[in-house]
Write a structure and sequence with these properties.
single chain; seven-stranded mixed sheet; four-stranded antiparallel sheet; 9 helices
Length: 446
C-alpha cells in the first residue's frame, strides 16, 4: 500500500482542490492525474507517483492542501479496493453527484470554494455540520452570507461556462441550483466580478463599473475566460494600480549575437538556443551590476537578493504564464536553452507546477515572433522590474569610423520599473549596461 502526496509546489500553502479526477476502485498508472489544484497563478494537475488500485481518497473538492498532504492511497499489488468513494466527486456519475448533499457558497464565487468542504450541509443555526459518509466538516455559513446551493457537478459546469452561480435562480428543492438551471442560464447584464472589485473601486475613489445590457444592443457571443485569465486578472489589476510604472525604451544592436546564436544551433542539435535564453543570461549580468533591480519592497525595507531567478512569459492556448528559471547565473547557455524549452512545453501542456512559477526576481516578456516596436509590460509583484522585447528589425546605423550607414539588426527593449525603488537615471544605466552585454556577449564573463 502506498500513499500519493502533494509534491513540491514552491512557496504555496493551502492550495484549493478544484477537481478530483479519480475514484476509489480506479486503476491508475504513474503520472496519471489525480486532482486539480488552483493557485493564484495557475491551475494544475497533480500526477500519481504510484500505480495500482485506489483504495481511499483523502481529499475532496474545496479542501486546501500543502506539500506533503496525502491525496490517495494505492494498492500497488492491485488488491481489492473499497467500493464506496470518500465523497460525491472523483469520477462518480452526474446523477450520483447531483443527489449528494450540497454546500452553500459565497455569492461572488462561481468557481472553487476553498473555504468550504464539498459535502455536508450547514445546520439551520449556522453552525458547522459533519457529513456522515466522510466525516468532513463543512464551514459555517451565516444567513448574512446569502449562500447559493449547488452540487459539485453543477459547480464544475458553471466554472467551465464562466457562470457566476450567484446570478442563477435555483429551481431545485429549497432553491438548489441544478444542471438544467446552469445550462439554461442566459446572462442579461455585465457587471464587475464580485463585491471585491466594487470595494476596491470605492477605496480608490473610482467611478462604478458601467453595467450594460449588450444583448439589447445587438447580437453578441459570450465566451468564458480561461482559468489562467481569471486567475491572473486580479494580480495584473493589483500590480498596475499599486505600482507606479515607468517604462524606458531603447534598442540594442544584436547583429553579432544573432550570428552567434545561429552558430550554436548549427553546431549542435540537442537543444534550440533561442533569444530568450540569451536574454536570461544577459539580464543576470546587468542585475549583478545593478543589484537594486534584483530586489523587492518589504514594508519600509528593500530586500536585495543575492540569487538570480528569472521568469519568462510563455504564450499558451489558455493565456500567458510565467515559468521561472532558477539560478540563471550558475548555468551555461545550452543548459538554459534546454530548461527554457522544457518549461515552455510544460506551460503549453498545462503541466507547470507552482514551484516552477514562483520565486522570480526579474521577468522577461518577449513578443519577438509577433511584431511591434515597443510596449509597456506590467511589473510582476513583488519584483521591481520587467524587460519587454519585441521583434528585431534590420535598420541603417551610422558607422562613425567608416563614415557610412551600415545595416544592423536592432532589438527594441522596453524596461518597466517600480518608480518607488528605481529612478529614471538608474533605469537608463541598467538598459545601457544590458545593451552593452547584448552587443558584445563576452561581457557576461566579466
Amino acid at each position: 500500500m502506498s500513499e500519493v502526496a502533494v509534491p513540491d509546489i514552491g512557496d504555496f500553502t493551502d492550495v484549493p482542490v478544484v477537481e478530483v479526477l479519480v475514484a476509489v476502485g480506479d486503476t491508475i498508472a504513474i503520472d496519471d492525474p489525480i486532482v486539480e489544484l488552483e493557485s493564484d497563478k495557475a491551475s494544475f494537475e497533480v500526477p500519481s507517483t504510484a500505480a495500482g488500485t485506489i483504495t481511499a481518497l483523502k481529499v475532496q473538492i474545496g479542501d486546501k492542501v500543502s506539500e506533503g498532504d496525502v491525496l490517495i492511497e494505492v494498492d500497488e499489488a492491485g488488491g481489492d479496493a473499497a467500493t464506496v468513494p470518500v465523497d460525491g466527486e472523483g469520477g462518480t456519475s452526474d446523477t450520483a453527484a447531483e443527489a449528494s448533499e450540497t454546500v452553500p457558497a459565497p455569492n461572488d464565487a462561481p468557481g472553487p470554494e476553498p473555504e468550504q468542504a464539498a459535502a455536508g450541509p450547514a445546520d439551520a443555526s449556522g453552525g458547522s455540520a459533519v457529513d456522515r459518509a466522510t466525516g468532513a466538516k463543512a464551514v459555517d455559513a451565516s444567513p448574512s452570507d446569502a449562500p447559493v446551493y449547488a452540487s459539485p457537478v453543477v459547480r464544475r459546469l458553471a466554472r467551465e461556462r464562466g457562470i457566476d452561480l450567484a446570478q442563477v435562480t435555483g429551481t431545485g428543492e429549497k432553491g438548489r441550483i441544478t444542471k438544467a438551471d446552469v445550462e439554461g442560464f442566459t446572462p442579461g447584464t455585465s457587471a464587475p466580478a464580485g463585491g471585491a472589485a466594487a470595494a476596491a473601486d470605492d477605496a480608490l475613489g473610482l467611478a462604478p463599473w458601467p453595467v450594460v445590457n449588450f444583448e439589447k444592443l445587438g447580437p453578441v457571443t459570450r465566451e468564458p475566460l480561461t482559468k489562467i485569465q481569471k486567475l491572473s486578472a486580479a494580480n495584473l489589476a493589483r500590480n498596475w494600480v499599486r505600482i507606479p510604472h515607468v517604462t524606458h525604451n531603447d534598442e540594442a544592436d544584436i547583429t553579432d549575437l544573432e550570428t552567434f546564436r545561429k552558430q550554436l544551433n548549427s553546431e549542435q542539435s540537442d537543444v534550440k538556443v533561442t533569444m530568450v535564453a540569451l536574454l536570461l543570461k544577459a539580464s543576470v549580468a546587468s542585475l549583478q551590476a545593478y543589484p537594486r533591480f534584483n530586489s523587492s519592497l518589504d514594508g519600509d525595507e528593500l530586500v536585495v537578493k543575492h540569487f538570480y531567478n528569472v521568469g519568462f512569459a510563455a504564450d499558451t492556448p489558455n493565456g500567458l504564464v510565467v515559468p521561472v528559471v532558477k539560478d540563471v547565473d550558475q548555468k551555461g547557455i545550452l543548459e538554459l536553452a534546454g530548461e527554457v524549452g522544457e518549461l515552455s512545453a510544460k506551460a503549453r501542456a498545462g503541466k507547470l507546477m507552482p514551484a516552477q512559477m514562483s520565486g522570480g526576481n526579474f521577468s522577461i516578456s518577449s513578443l519577438g515572433g509577433i511584431g511591434g516596436t515597443s510596449f509597456t509590460p506590467i511589473v510582476n509583484a513583488p519584483e521591481v522590474a520587467i524587460l519587454g522585447v519585441v521583434r528585431s528589425a534590420t535598420k541603417p546605423q551610422w558607422d562613425g569610423k567608416a563614415g557610412v550607414f551600415v545595416p544592423r539588426l536592432m532589438l527594441p527593449l522596453s524596461l518597466s520599473y517600480d518608480h518607488r525603488v528605481i529612478d529614471g537615471a538608474l533605469a537608463a544605466r541598467f538598459v545601457v549596461h544590458l545593451k552593452g552585454v547584448l552587443e558584445d556577449f563576452r561581457r557576461v564573463l566579466l
